[in-house]
Amino acid sequence: MAEWHSIQLKVLYEVLGWVAFVAWSISFYPQVIMNFRRKSVVGLNFDFVILNLTKHSSYMIYNVVLYFSSSVQAQYRHKFGSNQMIPVAANDVAFSTHAVLLTAFTLFQIFIYERRTQRFSKVTIAIVCVVWLSAAVCVFVAIHRHSWLWLISVFNTIQVTMTVTKYVPQVYMNFRLKSTDGFSIGNILLDLLGGVTNYGQMAMQSIDQKSWVNFYGNIGKTLLSLVSIFFDIIFIIQHYVLYPAKKKQNLPIQSSSEVPPQFGCKIEDCKE
User: Measured between alpha carbons, how far is residue 69 from residues 14, 62, 75, 78 in Å?
Assistant: First the structure.
C-alpha cells in the first residue's frame, strides 16, 4: 500500500480536494435557483442537462466502485503497480453523487416550469440511448471475464465523452441568441474554481509520489478538469465580453429556420 511522504502535501491534497467538492457542488445551485425564481427554464439548453446527467451518472459509477471495491483496487494496482495510490478520493465520491441528484432535480424543473417550445433534440436522445445500451453490453462482457477495472474504465470514458459533448449545445445556443440570458454564470465561475483545485489536488499527489501515474491512471479525472476549464473560459468570454449588453434586453425575433433542430428550440422561443 502506498503512503504519503509529506504531511504538508497530504494536507494540501485534502484541502484542495474539498475546495473542489464545495465549488463544484455549489455550482449546481445558481441554475436551480434561477429556474425557481423565474419559474422558467427558457434559455437553459435541455440537451446540456440530459447529457450532463449521463456524464455525472457514469462518473459516479466509476468513483464509487473504484473507491469502495477492494477487487477493483487490486486490479488497478496489478496494472499500475502495487505502490500506487488509488486515484479516487472521498471528495470525488461525494461530488459525483451530489451532482447526479442536483442534475436530476434540474431535469425535473424542465418538466414543471415554463419552457415554451424548447425541447430535447432527437439527436441527443439517440446519443444517450446508444451510450447506455453500450454500457449494458459492456457489463455483460465484464461479468463473463471478471474485468471490473476495464468496466469502470468504460464508464470513465463515457463521462469524458459526455463532458466534451454536453457543453456544445449551450455554447451554440448562446452564440445563436447572442445572449447568455437564462444560463447562470455563477454555475460557470464555481465550475472553473472546482476544475482548477481538482487539478491541483492531483498534482499534490503526483509530486508526493514522484509519479505521474495519478494522471494517466485516472485519465477521466484529468480530462474532466481540463475540458471543464476550457469550456468555462468560453462561457465567461460569451457572458462578459461578447454579449454583455444584450443580457438584459429582449432579443429580436429571428427566423426559426436559422437554428438546426438538433439544438432543441427555435430562436424566437428561446428569447426571454
Answer: 21, 11, 10, 14
